[in-house]
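ESCALATION

Customer reports they have been waiting on this structure for their group meeting. Please prioritize. Original submission:
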Amino acid sequence: MPPSIRFPSGAARPRLPAALRGLLGVLRSIGIYHRPHRRGALDRMHARFAGRGDLVFDIGAHVGDRVASFRRLGMRVVAVEPQPLLAQLLRLLYARDRRVSVVQAAVGAAPGSIDLHLNLDNPTVSTASSDFIHAAAVDSAWQGQHWERQVRVPVTTLDALIARFGEPRFIKIDVEGYEDQVLKGLSLAPTAFSFEFTTIQRPVARAALAECRRLGASRFNAALGESQRLLHAGWTDAASMRAWLDALPAHANSGDIYAMRG
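Update from on-call: job pushed to the front of the queue and completed.
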C-alpha cells in the first residue's frame, strides 16, 4: 500500500509516546481503509475470484478491510497479520465470527522467526524487508516514513497454513516488499491469488511473477493503487505483465497483480 501519512519537509515530527503514536497510526489506518465508499469496489473485485463458502487467505490483513469484504461475500477467511497491535485489533473485531481465523505471524519462504520493522505513524508500511526500507529512503515519494522499532515475530508458510486450515480458493498478499518470499513458501497455487507491488521495488515484483509462473499461473491482470479496477480488458501472460510493470512510471507508486491458473 502507498504511504498514507507524510510530514511536511522541515516540519518537526510529533513528540508523542511510542504507544500513543502506534495507536494513532492504527486509528488513521482504520479511517482510511474502512471508508464506506470503498466497500463496493472491494466486493466487486473479490467476487471475481471466490464466492460464498469459499476459503480465502488474507496475508498482511492490516486493519481488516479486506477481511470485512470477504465476509460480506460469505467467504471463510484466514487473516494473517504479524503486527501485535493489529493482530489484537483483528481478534477483537472478529472474536464472535467463527468463519474468521486470525493468525499472528509473518509469512515467508520457511518457518522460523524474523525482525519486523514497525512504522508507528503509518503501520500500513511496516515490513519484514530491510531492502524495502532502503528503497523507500532514497525515493522522494516516501519521505517522512520512519521505521523506528523492531519486534521479533514468528514466521509461518503458506504451505503450513494450508495444512492447518485447508486449501484456499484465493490468496491475497500485501506484505511490503516481502511478497516473493511469501510465494516461495507455497507448493501448489490456488485458483487465483494476488500480490502487491511497488515501483520502488520492481525486482521484488519480477521475482513474485517468476514464482507465479513456477506455481502454474498463466493469466495475469493488475490494478493500480487502491482503485480495485482491473486495467486490462483481457487477461495477459507473464511476459506481457512484466513488460507492463517495467514500463510503469515511478509515480504510479503501487498496486496489485492478480494471477490465475488455467
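Sent to customer with the following note: The mean pLDDT is 93.
Escalation resolved.
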